[in-house]
Amino acid sequence: MQTLIGKKAPSFKASAVVNGNQIVEGFSLDQFVGKQEVVFFFYPLDFTFVCPTELIAFQDKLAEFEARNVAVVGCSVDSEFSHFAWLNTPRNKGGIEGVTYPLVADLSKTISENFGVLASEYDYDAEGNAVSTGAPVAYRGLFLIDKQGVVRHSVINDLPLGRNVDEAIRMVDALHHFEQNGEVCPANWSKGEEAMQATAEGVAEYLSK
């Protein structure tokens, strides 16, 4: 699999549920180009177990993303109708009621495949029929896309491994710091901490402290 880092994020138009209660056609990340960064994340399936903990965790931190002018968008291989039903199911019954950021429907699995997160692969049997091997869902991929539509950070987890939403915020802060100050962010850097110049002298000065 080739990395998308430094490349334009794959373009798509698909159905999505926005604000938790409205199905829209032709949803695209292109609407954010020139305006906002986007944290675009994939999860395997609606009405599962690890997934609601992640989607609710992103909702709990949504104000922090919005304060940084970052849009959060989720995606799975479910239909928009499945998304709608899950969004309108109470949390104490396994739902994600209260999630307001968009959820994209990738029923064809082409978006997942183009972003390199589809867990299954297609091959042909002896009769020439296309067959799928592996789980036909998306891994837990996350992509930080800048205002120019370029992927600047990505991480892909296997299905059982839930993500750390605070790490996504940290990467947004690191990107903003670099863009605003021209300094690079060392290991374990957090907003408000000292960064460094991307030179031998800058590294030496940072490590000497």
Automatic annotation (TrEMBL):
InterPro entries: AhpC/TSA (IPR000866), Peroxiredoxin (IPR050217), Peroxiredoxin_AhpC-typ (IPR024706), Peroxiredoxin_C (IPR019479), Thioredoxin-like_sf (IPR036249), Thioredoxin_domain (IPR013766). SUPFAM superfamilies: Thioredoxin-like (SSF52833). Gene3D superfamilies: Glutaredoxin (3.40.30.10). The keyword RNA-binding does not apply. Residues 3-177 form the Thioredoxin domain. Keywords: Oxidoreductase. Belongs to the peroxiredoxin family. AhpC/Prx1 subfamily. PANTHER family: THIOREDOXIN PEROXIDASE, THIOREDOXIN-DEPENDENT PEROXIDE REDUCTASE, MITOCHONDRIAL. Thiol-specific peroxidase that catalyzes the reduction of hydrogen peroxide and organic hydroperoxides to water and alcohols, respectively. Plays a role in cell protection against oxidative stress by detoxifying peroxides. This is Thioredoxin peroxidase. It comes from Marinifilum caeruleilacunae. The lineage of its organism: Bacteria, Pseudomonadati, Bacteroidota, Bacteroidia, Marinilabiliales.
